[in-house]
Write a structure and sequence with these properties.
about 140 residues, alpha/beta, 6 helices, about 15% strand, globular, NB-ARC, NB-ARC domain-containing protein, P-loop_NTPase, plant defense, ADP binding
């Protein structure tokens, strides 16, 4: 469901993770019209890897994996607003990078299942009365 606060919740988590020493946090917004190539390019930018001269998808995968495995710190990658499932291998995310995590937000439980997430958290909308109370408390 859109508009229930998935991105806001993960933004809060992102900000907390940024305060942790020796943890790198990468945020990638996927959106409805995204492709593997766009996601690879976004990831490469976040990790300071130049893929502008690389057209071969599999070579890009190798370079991305190698660069992420070189990171000496733990890292967390947030993939926000996924509209379709895709193979993480094709993105360039290493299978088993010790201490590293992937967080994704999506409107679809099916996408979570297709991507074999370990934990799925359904964010429920709050009741109108609760929303109004929260609004009044925040803005008055």
């Amino acid at each position: 469901m859109g508009g229930v606060g998935k991105t806001a919740l993960v933004t809060h988590l992102y900000n907390q993770l940024l305060e942790r020493p020796q943890t790198c946090v990468y945020w990638i917004t996927a959106s409805q019209d995204t492709s593997i190539n766009r996601l690879q390019t976004s990831l490469a930018r976040r990790i300071d890897l130049d893929l502008s001269n690389e057209d071969d998808e599999m070579h890009r995968v190798v370079l991305l994996k190698k660069e992420l495995m070189k990171k000496q710190h733990k890292w967390v990658m947030i993939l926000d607003d996924l509209w379709k499932a895709f193979d993480l291998q094709k993105l360039g995310i290493p299978d088993q990078a010790e201490g590293c995590k992937l967080i994704l937000t999506t409107r679809s439980k099916k996408i979570c299942q297709q991507m074999k997430t370990q934990h799925a958290i359904k964010v429920q909308p709050i009741l109108e009365e609760e929303a109004w109370t929260l609004f009044m408390r925040t803005w008055t």
